[in-house]
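User: Okay, second chain of the day. Same drill as before: sequence in, structure tokens out.
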Amino acid sequence: MPDNIIIEPGTVSGKVAAYPSKSHIQRALILGLLNNNGIEIGNYGASDDSKAVLEAISALGAEVKFKNNILSVKGLGKFTNSEIFCNESGLCLRLFAPILALSGEESRIRGTEGLLKRANGHISGILGKIGVQCVLERDILKVKGPLRSGSIKVEDTIGSQLISGLLFALSKVQGDSCIELVNPVSFPYIKMTAQILNRFGAGITIEDKENIYIKGRCEFMNGKLTIEGDWSSAAFFLVAGAVSGKVTVSGLDRESVQADKDILRYLENAGAEVSSGNGSVTVRKSDLKGFTADVRDCPDLFIPLAVLGLNCEGETKLFNYNRLRYKESDRPSALITELRKTGARIGIRDDHISIKRSVLRYEELDTYNDHRLAMGFSVAALNSEKGLIVKGPACVNKSFPSFFESLDHLRRK
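Assistant: Same drill. Structure tokens below.
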């Protein structure tokens, strides 16, 4: 992929398939590692983050086979290695931190310097409550168990990923456990983890977003898991339809627990024409008006919602965005800095980000190696004056390697 790519203004029309959800894939792969009976994974998508977890479970001894578009994974009952590399995947690091602590030996999680610089300081405090020693260094996280069962109170303002990791790990230890959640964020992703594990024999009960009960000593069953289409990346194409034509995205489940299906509610609030059926969602351009959105539980919608707001009459307000400062980039600051180069009317107002309708002028925009910025700028270019230059587009490989091919398919001069 070139260092820069020019996205010219124009309309979109057509149908694309949702890319497989990396959130589902990464959880399914780790389930396979901890499952001595093995699982089969359908609709696997080879994003960089998914590859990181696939390589990690292979390093830890999982048997992995790929045949007839089905990925088979089976654990050995013990880990055969004490070190993994998570590349730039925060989910990989935070899921594995408690899982590797199932061993009484010291384990090491390596990653890029950028990954380890993100907000990971909370890991040692939370895992320390259940017997795990953690040391965070420049490019490595060291963990030493054994992790023990019990009752813990957790307030994790950064996200839900470590809690999901605890659901895996506590399902395997001797004894039952309870996690009391204080002001949880991205709660639907915790539900996603519990749903997947329970389907394969775990005993996880969630009460009122406050208490999670986990039965220990689980022996996971074998079975097949077909990966859902990803609402997070599909949101960019649905917004493209709302602002510049008509787009259908197939392979989306409206009954999914994925938080980012909320994009449909916000599109409807903005006045877009939305219809769905048979696993597909269609969005058609209409007169759009400003709206209010809370991204506390759906942080990956922050950028597509901002792009939508740039095309709405009146003011759009986005709330609860602060923890997005600890993503692949300081996402709110990066978005505001780059869009202001184009003349966009966007800025921080008290407790929210304010966005007003803007026609963007031709500029080169830095993605900060952030996949969601690259996708967002590409959609924003559709209604710009003369297009936008997107710098470093290859970062989309993190979650959606074929993003630009799908966008090209929808383009209509």
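The radius of gyration is 21 Å.

User: Thanks, on to the next one.
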